Amino acid sequence: ARGALGGDGESGSVALARAVRAVRELAALGIGVTETVDSLEQARVLTEDAERSLDALADRVQADPARLEDVESRLAVIERLARKFGGSLASVLDHRRDLANEQEQLIAAEDGIARLEAEEGTRAAAFVAVAEELSARRREAAQGFAREVEGVLRRLA
Question: d(Cα 26, Cα 35) in Å, to the nearest integer?
Fold first, then answer.
């Protein structure tokens, strides 16, 4: 903004002061330009005030090249994403929301898989225990059956 007031290197207030002098010379020749001189003088004063304000603002605002590069880089990424996902920031945000929902579903599925694997381990252990108990009872029953068969065979012999 300050550079716009300066134009080709000369400040706006200096150019207006030169214009005031030139118009005053016309007034000295008897040409009725008093209102124009007053308007130019007011414009010069206002321009000087604006230049001082802009100079003060420029002193307060320090450009950080690294920060500017970061911001421009992020803007480039956002623009690229906008082109990729529909042309607007809203479409990028919609896609981000969809991805977040999908991520939540995947996490829930992973939790479900872990729960089912733990349940499978518990049930497998219970199955092994029941199978071992069944085998033990079959062995006991087989021994009793073998004794009965031996007794029947002895009686028949």
Answer: 12
- The domain limits of the chain are 1-62, 64-132
6 burial (CB, 10 Å; 0-12 / 13-18 / 19+) is: middle
Side-chain-side CA neighbours of 151 within 13 Å: the count stands at 6
The encoded tokens of residue 64 equal 């950080």
Digit-coded pLDDT (tens) for 107-132: 999 999 999 999 999 999 999 999 99
In angstroms, how far is CA 91 from the centroid of its own chain?
A: 13
Task: For the full predicted model, state whether its pTM sits above 0.70.
Answer: no
How many C-alpha atoms does 86 have within 13 Å on its Cβ side? 9
- Dihedral (CA of 92, 93, 96, 98) sign: negative
Nearest to 20 by CA among 1, 2, 52, 43: 43
Amino acid at 11: S
